[in-house]
Each structure stands twice: as C-alpha cells, then as structure tokens.
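Severity: low
Component: inverse-folding endpoint
Summary: output formatting inconsistent between runs
Steps to reproduce: submit the following structure tokens with default settings.
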C-alpha cells in the first residue's frame, strides 16, 4: 500500500488505510504500508517510512508545495521495499499515491488499484490552495484526469465519488466500484458514559454533543460554532465535545462567540481512545461541507450508538439512511434546530441509538469490506 500522507495521524483518510490493511491481514493477505516520515506506527501492519525531512512537519490534511519531492522520496522507498517484498499488486491511496503506484506498476509489471477518496481538483479548491477559476486549477484537473486513467481499477470511498468518476471524468463504468468506508464494531462500541465524562470533566447532567475529526473550514467547524452560539442564545442546556486538531484557532473563536463555557476541546486524540470518548456523549454531529470526500467519522458515531445530525448530502444519506437526522446543507440555523429537536426527544435518541449501532454492525463492518476488496484483488492479479 502506498500512503502519501503522514500515516498514522488519527484522521479519516488514515483510518481507511489502517482498517483496510487490518481487514486484509485477517483474510491472509500480506500487506506492507509505505508512507511519509511523519506519523506513528500502529500495529499490526508493517510500515516503512521515507527518510526524515526535518523542516516538513505538516500532519493535517490538505495540499502542500512540499508534496512533489516527498512523493519522489516515497517512490524510491517503495521501490526499495518492492525489490525484497515482490508484491503481487500495488494498492495506492490518494492521487499522489496512484501516481507513485503507476511508476511502480510500469517497473514491476503488476496491477495497480487506486483507492480514490475524492477529487484532487476539488480538494485543492476546498482548501483555498488555488482560485476556483485559476489556470493552476486547470492544470490540476489535467493531472487528475491522467492519474485517474493510469490505474487498472479504482475503488471509491462513496457512491457519489464513483458516479462522478464515470459521469464527469468519463472513466469506464466497469473500472470503478464504490467500496465505502466501514468501522471496526468490536473496537468502536458503546462504553460507560459516567467514567468517560469524569475523565473529560464534562457536565454530568446535560446532553453532550460529539464531534470527532479535523478542525477546519471545509469540515464545517465554523458553521458548527455558529450553531453552538445560536443554541446558547436560545438558552438550550447543551454541551459540545469537539475532538480533533488543529484546535487553537477554534478555541479562540469559541471565546469570541462567547461559547467557551459550553464547548470542550480535547485537541488531537489517539484513535484507540476515540470509542471511549464518543461514549461520553448523547448524540453526534457532522457539519462537513466538502461534497468531494467521504465522511468516515459517521461510521464511528454509529458504532458507538450515537444518533447523528449531518448536512443533507448524498454521502451522508448513503451512510446513515433512514437513521440520520439531516439539516439543510451549510445552514447553521437549521443545524442548531435539528440538534435541539433531537436532544429534546429522549425516546427518539434512545431508539436511534439502537438503530445506528445495529446498522453499523450489519451493514458497515470492515470485515465485509475486506472480503470484497480481496475479490477485486484476485480479479486484477489473474
């Protein structure tokens, strides 16, 4: 597996890489991950890293002008590992990984599977890396198109992404399949609420709303804090637990909005602690506004039995189905209203808690995703 990212950094893209690799190993596949010099090694997957680059310390998601030379180093490291490991197949994550994988494919004469987690062009635009009408964005679109066509097969983390590849990028339908994210329901499960609240110093007598993930604009954190301010102004008795990084900007914004008293920021937390901390909460929220990416945090919410309020997008509806509470896309006022209505209805919270847990177990296990991935591997190798 080629992972052009500071793996493992406790965020959605990395969770997909880890859980796929872990599921494949449980099915007898020998998986090796090659990644950047940053990140922490998480067992049981053998992980190989590029040489240290002292000045590059970026762990959060998003484009960077450092990527070209980092990916060149990644190619040489992967080539070194391939000489001794002799892989049957290259599984490349993200567009940079697929480009590295394509070069390895040509040298090693093995198939390339591209694990697509969203449009590269849309990502650089969402992160403000380029203007929406800039010439540079058009260059990225050309590069993205070439990379999409370099793989022998593409899996996507959501059905809308698969549809976009076929309908917008004109990739043959037979070369694309949606393999949406999943969750390890043995790891992510409900834990005791009282112990977790005590550890996090959360109020014991009010509903707590969870958010877990990166903290930035395209994840909708600005909108979420706007909704929190509206709820506080309405004198709603609620507390918000916001878990993720980088948190400094939003801690300051919570002070400016006068909501710091009803928000707890944890900063970065290890993936292993996430189930316990989620279990401290009553419901969860996902205000993500990027339409180009999957939304893996929702699977974790569901597995921990948390009814979830999210914006009304095809990706969120695909995951939650009839168990979701959907707010108007990008609308802070409606997000606040949907949160308030849900927490006020204790019976509905209890019913949805059971439903989302059952849906996670029966529909979204990583074991099933791994079995499907193995079928695709065998087709490519033959």
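Observed output (run 2 of 3):
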């Amino acid at each position: 597996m080629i992972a052009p990212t500071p793996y493992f950094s406790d965020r959605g893209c990395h969770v997909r890489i880890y859980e796929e690799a872990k599921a494949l190993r449980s099915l007898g596949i020998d998986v090796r991950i090659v990644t950047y010099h940053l990140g922490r090694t998480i067992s049981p997957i053998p992980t190989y890293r590029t040489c240290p680059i002292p000045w590059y310390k970026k762990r959060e998601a998003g484009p960077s002008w450092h990527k070209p030379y980092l990916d060149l180093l990644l190619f040489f490291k992967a080539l070194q590992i391939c000489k001794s490991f002799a892989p049957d197949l290259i599984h490349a994550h993200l567009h940079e990984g697929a480009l590295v994988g394509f070069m390895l494919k040509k040298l090693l004469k093995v198939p390339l599977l591209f694990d697509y987690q969203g449009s590269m062009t849309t990502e650089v635009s969402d992160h403000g890396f380029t203007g929406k009408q800039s010439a540079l964005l058009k260059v990225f679109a050309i590069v993205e198109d070439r990379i999409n066509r370099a793989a022998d097969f593409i899996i996507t983390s959501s059905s809308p992404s698969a549809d976009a590849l076929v309908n917008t990028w004109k990739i043959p339908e037979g070369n694309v399949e949606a393999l949406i994210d999943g969750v390890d329901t043995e790891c992510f499960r409900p834990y005791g609420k009282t112990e977790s609240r005590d550890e996090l110093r959360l109020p014991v007598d009010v509903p707590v709303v969870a958010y877990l993930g990166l903290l930035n604009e395209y994840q909708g954190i600005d909108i979420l804090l706007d909704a929190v301010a509206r709820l506080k102004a309405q004198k709603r008795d609620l507390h918000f637990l916001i878990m993720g990084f980088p948190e400094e900007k939003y801690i300051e914004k919570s002070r400016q909005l006068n909501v710091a008293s009803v928000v707890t920021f944890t900063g970065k937390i290890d993936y292993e602690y996430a189930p316990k901390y989620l279990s401290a909460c009553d419901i969860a929220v996902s205000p993500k506004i990027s339409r180009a990416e999957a939304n893996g945090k929702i699977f974790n919410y569901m597995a921990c039995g948390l009814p979830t309020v999210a914006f009304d997008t095809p990706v969120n509806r695909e995951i939650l189905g009839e168990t979701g509470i959907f707010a108007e896309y990008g609308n802070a006022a409606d997000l606040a209203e949907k949160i308030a209505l849900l927490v006020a209805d204790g019976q509905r919270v209890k019913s949805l808690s059971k439903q989302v847990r059952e849906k996670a177990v029966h529909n979204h296990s990583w074991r099933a995703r791994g079995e499907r991935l193995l079928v695709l591997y065998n087709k490519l190798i033959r």
